[in-house]
Amino acid sequence: MVMGDGALTPSISVLSAVQGIQSRSSRITQDHVVILCVIILVFLFLFQRHGTSKVSFTFSPIMLLWFALVSSIGLYNIIKYYPPVLKALSPHYIYIYFVRNKRAGWEQLGAAILCITGSEAMFADLGHFNKLSIQMAFSFLVYPSLILAYAGQAAFLIKNPSKLSTTFYSSIPEPLFWPMFIVASLAAIVASQALISASYSIIRQSIALGCFPRVTMKHTSEKYEGQVHSPEITYFLMIVCILITVGFKGGPEVGQAYGVAVIWVMLITTKLMTVVMVIIWQVHIALAGLFYIVYTSIEGLYTTSLLYKIAQGGWVPFAITAFFLIITLSWTYGRSKKNGYEASNLMDRQEFIKTVTMSNRVPGICFFCTDLMNGIPPIVRHYAHHMACLRELMVFVTVRSLHVRSVLPEERFLIDKLEPFGVYRCIVQYGYMDNQDMEDSEYIASVIASLKDIAENENEIALIDSALANGSSFVIGRVILSMSTRKNCFKRFVINNLYRFLQKNFRSNISSLKIAPGKTLQIGMQYEI
């Protein structure tokens, strides 16, 4: 749903800002507005590769100017048209409104949800700011500005009910129209950036949890780990966003789809937050239950009012959700089967010692790249069986990414000695801004130096030096899952088609490593599950 939100927010934000230009000339049609929106959206998404840090210094001035203008214009409209409009702050008008309008009032909640959009993506801000700064900015700037802006538009509509469809731009004093048009367009881009960043954030977290296939994640800031960019996600969002804008021609369907996406994100977040409160924060079950009931009741009421709009464009976020859900569930199921197979087919200590002892040992170093922190992966058995020989020095390499900017050279390698003689395990630690380069001789020299540090005698050091002089190779395992015909056809389709397609077309766990192609050997192995 956040991904659907990320595709819909740029579309509706830019459309809302640009549509105001139609009020200046009857020659400007909706098609012209759509074309202009598409141009702005393309530039917005193509700029993502440079990272938000390159332009983020402009975000605060733009948003401060935006809130200053909307609140000032709102206050101007309140004073000019209808000062008593501020009575609407009293909650009892909610009751009066529903008593008066009944079903029509309930249906109009679907439009009211658009007034609070953006708040569902506040979690992405934690990658850039601390909690206190977000709370203060919302409480003392955002919320008061929005109250004045909406109250001012309501006051304007009381005196000018015929301007309902163009309320925002019609309520702006004539001398401020073009400055406001420019600031509104810039603010729409900033708002779009927030949801695009949220999309990157949730995909990155899903990858870390192992429930989404790997995509390219580039850190664009040395200061903030949360500022990332994914080219694949960028192009996906850009294509979907343009299709939505052109397909609906900037019509009300975009707003319907956006409202559905936002309220479902809020509803699901409330459920997950309740779980966090009980399990992680260990809040008393009664307080967590009260939180759940209150917020689910409010969000559930909004959700029911949007159900009838699913056929009017509200199906779009569900279609995007279904697309990502198929990927997530297929990948998670395939990974669980792969991990289960490897766990039950690991080489035990005695089998590994016997395999190494009975194999011919040839000079040189072999680096086995594996995801396993412990145990010997089944791919070693497969390699030894078919190659009938092993290098005199074997190192099992596992890469671990840490939540720090950079790892110090002396903390890069964690070395452990295994049995039999000449076998080691090496955990390589990288920070998010470190270059994972294994191509040059410096990397191998660093590993060798670490191996010598734990060497127990001169014979072991001599073996390490001899292996280094005879060259090195990197062995990478490629696993293919195949489900037997004993399983039902649906599970076979998921593993043999969906998971295999994802495995083939997305990045592998070690794809970020830079390994010299001439030293790399890829060993394929089929797991029958």
Contiguous uncertain segments of 5+ residues? none
Count of helical stretches: 17
Q: Give a short account of the largest sheet.
A: 6 strands, mixed
**Mean pLDDT, as a whole number?**
86
Q: Numbering strands along the chain, what is their spatial order in the largest sheet?
A: 5-6-4-3-7-8
Order of helices and strands: HHHHHHHHEEHHHHHEHEEEHHEHE
| Overall strand count | 8
Note the quaternary state here.
Answer: single chain
Write the layout of secondary structure elements.
Blueprint: H1 2-18, H2 30-46, H3 56-81, H4 92-107, H5 109-112, H6 131-159, H7 167-170, H8 177-208, E1 218-219, E2 228-229, H9 231-247, H10 252-279, H11 285-306, H12 315-344, H13 349-358, E3 360-369, H14 378-387, E4 389-401, E5 413-418, E6 423-430, H15 441-453, H16 458-469, E7 472-482, H17 489-505, E8 520-528
Parallel strand pairs: 3-4, 3-7, 4-6, 7-8
Antiparallel strand pairs: 1-2, 5-6
Helix pairs in contact: 1-2, 1-8, 1-9, 1-10, 1-12, 2-9, 3-6, 3-8, 10-11, 10-12, 12-17, 15-16
In short:
It contains 17 helices and eight strands. About 55% of the residues lie in helices and about 10% in strands. It has a six-stranded mixed beta sheet, sandwiched between helices. A two-stranded antiparallel ribbon has the order 1-2.
Would you kindly provide a written description of the structure presented here, covering whatever features stand out?
The chain has 529 residues and is an alpha/beta fold. It contains 17 helices and eight strands. The chain has helices at 2-18, 30-46, 56-81, 92-107, 109-112, 131-159, 167-170, 177-208, 231-247, 252-279, 285-306, 315-344, 349-358, 378-387, 441-453, 458-469, 489-505, and strands at 218-219, 228-229, 360-369, 389-401, 413-418, 423-430, 472-482, 520-528. Strands 5-6-4-3-7-8 form a six-stranded mixed sheet, sandwiched between helices. The protein has a two-stranded antiparallel ribbon with strand order 1-2. A hairpin with a 4-residue loop joins strand 5 and strand 6. Helix 1 crosses helix 9, helix 10 (252-279) packs antiparallel against helix 11 (285-306) and helix 12 crosses helix 17. The protein is elongated and about 95 Å long.
